[in-house]
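Late entry, evening session. Most of the bench is empty. Finally got around to the prediction I had been postponing all week. Sequence below, unchanged from the version circulated by S.P.
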Amino acid sequence: MKKGVTPLLWTLVVIDVVLTLVNAVFPNNIPILILILMPLAFALFHGAQRYKWSGIITFLVMCLVVSNVLENTSILTGFPFGHYYYTSGLGPKLFLVPLVIGPAYFGTGYLAWVLSTVLIGDVRPKASAFMTFAVPFMASFMMVAWDLGMDPSSSNSLPSTCVCARRAVMGRSRRCPGPTMLRPS
């Protein structure tokens, strides 16, 4: 890594840990955008070092497009994530999905990818079939674990920032304010 980048990355990690701990002790006191910016910045700087700017920007664009398409599809049809909607508490939206969702997927997805390469090994052009399959497979499980942890707390938090589901989340039904046609039944 280039001189000066490693201290920046460690600074971002420490700030993110502190913000996460403060948010756990004092829920909803730190704006969601700040909580998303730390992993986003880390992913951009670390990814630029590891995969060059062209590689990490490609990954960013893919995450933003795929996450928005899948989230909008799920909101409209229930597939693949089930029926839910976002309240206005997360800010402006691109169609039905708040703009902060894509960067959150990007930051967490990149961290899941990097952790998978640490646990299994790096995927390179001449990597084995095992590596080519195992690293994204492991990263996808990490993303699912993150999502399973986030959804219940998000859907049962303050109404201004909740993700509202039509079905019970972790055994608890939640009615959130929102458009009548999307209101949970």
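Two things to note before I forget:
The first strand starts at residue 84 and ends at 86.
Residues 5-182 form one domain.
Will write this up properly tomorrow.
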